[in-house]
């Protein structure tokens, strides 16, 4: 008799790059070319081009939602942050809340405008970067099912032991940080002298608390029992509450977005646009509240005025504008900026360690207002600004294409539970690039791989302890009969 035919698994539906993707990308570039020509011919003013830029960024966001797994793709999250952080003022200008979206006002007592050509260059860099980030993800997109975690669930007891053992240490560390900040002027001191701030707690406390986040992410990926998952999530964010009260909010908010992404990858279910909008509104409200707690001045309005909050978030466009206007001043230090970014995850980069050429955002702050910088006020960076410093618009196009391909790889690696842990550790750095540095993610990658190595070594010791505990004492092992005559 012939053996029964085995049923083959159904092939997964794969969305290959089609002529539609090519037409879509070419249409986007064509729209930019037409708008650029109209601007050169003086048919459009800079503010009119700003409106077109905001509309194109929104269009890219809608396209990425539609074509890239309904928001469960790093490209969609990246474009969302790009729209908020580089295009926030453009949006509020379209809504009538911002009178002059291209005026540089961040940390400077004397706001100033760019020339017409410089303003056009800034907007062109923003829109080209957005399209170049989207294009590789759209062209290479393939749909995948949820990752299989059956074989990896044996690590859950170890991760729970590590997580609940380190959470009390993290609570103690965050309480010590909060108390130290209250005694030294609040969150500003954290930015001015991070070294002394970190030294306020013992070294072993800082080392043990580093295990909390990787262990929590591992639990979030592998756990399927909702009550255990909800309790672990409650414990982690409860331990981070004091940092939020202190004013450090970006890391926690980015982690919430990352967990939303991980939940979608884990379940394989399609996202609902309403749920994504509700999550965004909640994050805006939380960020506004903690912004008000940190600043304690007129920025209290950001907690209740969403347009004011979006305008404030969009101030990162000023950094890109300063890089375009004063490129000759910053370009000689472009290599130094990139080199220092490679070890920011392992060394403090606060005001006490400042020197010219160490960090681009700090140099911009010193240029705009050196007195305010000396008192702890400063700005962050902008990956578009660093791209432009390296090689003008050509570098913006080329490096943004590479960033888009990296986001595509993050999506591909999300469909294995082990590499998904690394993706979740890296993704916040990519999402902060519109107001951060170009190569911070490489430094965080090295630190993440070090964490994974430490977790693997800890698993070996954990397995050895379990083996010793379950081995009966006094057990004598007899020699097999096959070897008794040897």
Explained architecture:
With 486 residues, the chain is an all-alpha fold. Among the domains are: 19-146 and 387-427, no CATH class; 153-313, no CATH class. The chain is 67% helix and 0% strand. The chain is built from 23 helices and no strands. Helix 6 packs parallel to helix 11 (226-239) and helix 13 runs antiparallel to helix 22. The longest helix has 31 residues, at 383-413. The relative contact order is 0.12. The model is unreliable at 1-16, 297-301 and 476-486 (pLDDT under 50).
Main attributes of the structure:
486 residues, mainly alpha, 23 helices, 67% helix, 0% strand, globular, disordered N terminus, disordered C terminus
Brief summary of the model shown:
The protein is an all-alpha fold and 486 residues long. The chain has helices at residues 19-40, 46-67, 74-85, 88-94, 116-140, 156-183, 187-192, 194-198, 203-209, 212-222, 226-239, 241-246, 250-267, 273-295, 306-313, 317-325, 327-330, 334-341, 360-368, 370-374, 383-413, 417-431, 440-470. The longest helix has 31 residues, at 383-413.
N-to-C span: 46 Å
Question: pLDDT under 50 segments (min length 5)?
Answer: 1-16, 297-301, 476-486
* Topology pattern, helix = H, strand = E: HHHHHHHHHHHHHHHHHHHHHHH
Number of strands: 0
- Structural class comes to mainly alpha
Query: Helical region count?
Result: 23
Mean of all residue-level pLDDT scores: 82
Q: What radius of gyration results from the CA coordinates?
A: 25 Å
Classify the beta-strand content into a percent band. under 5%
Query: Approximately how much helix is present in the residues?
Result: 55-70%
Profile the largest sheet: none
Apparent shape: globular
């Amino acid at each position: 008799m012939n053996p029964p035919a085995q049923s083959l698994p159904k092939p997964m539906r794969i969305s290959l790059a089609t002529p539609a993707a090519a037409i879509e990308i070419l249409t986007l570039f064509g729209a930019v070319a037409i708008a650029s020509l109209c601007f050169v011919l003086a048919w459009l003013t800079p503010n009119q081009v700003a409106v077109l830029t905001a509309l194109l960024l929104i269009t890219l966001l809608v396209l990425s939602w539609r074509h890239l797994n309904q928001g469960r793709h790093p490209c969609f999250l990246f474009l969302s942050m790009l729209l908020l952080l580089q295009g926030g003022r453009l949006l509020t200008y379209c809504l009538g809340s911002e009178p002059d979206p291209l005026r540089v006002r961040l940390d400077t007592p004397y706001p100033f405008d760019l020339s017409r050509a410089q303003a056009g260059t800034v907007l062109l860099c923003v829109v080209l970067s957005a399209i170049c980030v989207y294009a590789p993800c759209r062209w290479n997109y393939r749909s995948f099912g949820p990752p299989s975690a059956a074989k990896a669930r044996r690590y859950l007891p170890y991760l729970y032991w590590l997580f609940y053992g380190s959470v009390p240490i993290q609570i103690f560390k965050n309480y010590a940080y909060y108390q130290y900040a209250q005694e030294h002027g609040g969150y500003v001191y954290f930015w001015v002298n991070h070294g002394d701030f970190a030294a306020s707690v013992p070294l072993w406390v800082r080392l043990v608390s580093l295990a909390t986040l990787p262990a929590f992410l591992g639990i979030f990926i592998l756990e399927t029992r909702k009550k255990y998952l909800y309790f672990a999530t409650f414990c982690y964010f409860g331990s981070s509450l004091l940092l939020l009260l202190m004013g450090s909010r970006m890391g926690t908010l980015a982690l919430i977005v990352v967990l939303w992404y991980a939940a979608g990858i884990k379940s394989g279910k399609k996202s609902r646009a309403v749920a994504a909008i509700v999550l965004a509104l909640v994050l805006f409200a939380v960020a506004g509240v903690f912004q008000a707690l940190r600043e304690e001045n007129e920025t209290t309005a950001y907690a209740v005025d969403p347009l004011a909050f979006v305008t404030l978030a969009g101030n990162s466009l000023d950094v890109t504008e300063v890089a375009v206007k004063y490129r000759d001043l910053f370009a000689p230090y472009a290599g130094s900026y990139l080199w220092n970014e490679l070890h920011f995850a392992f060394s403090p980069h606060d005001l006490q360690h400042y020197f010219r050429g160490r960090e681009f955002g700090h140099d911009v702050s010193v240029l705009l207002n050196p007195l305010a910088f000396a008192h702890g006020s400063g700005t962050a960076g902008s990956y578009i600004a660093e791209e432009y410093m390296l090689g003008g618009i050509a570098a913006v196009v080329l490096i943004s294409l590479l960033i888009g391909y990296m986001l595509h790889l993050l999506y591909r690696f999300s469909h294995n539970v082990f590499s998904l842990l690394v993706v979740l550790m890296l993704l916040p750095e990519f999402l902060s690039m519109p107001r951060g540095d170009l190569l911070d993610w490489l430094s965080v990658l090295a630190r993440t791989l070090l964490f994974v190595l430490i977790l693997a070594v800890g698993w070996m010791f954990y397995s050895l302890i379990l083996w010793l505990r379950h081995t009966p004492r006094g057990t004598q092992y007899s020699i097999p009969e096959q070897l008794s005559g040897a």
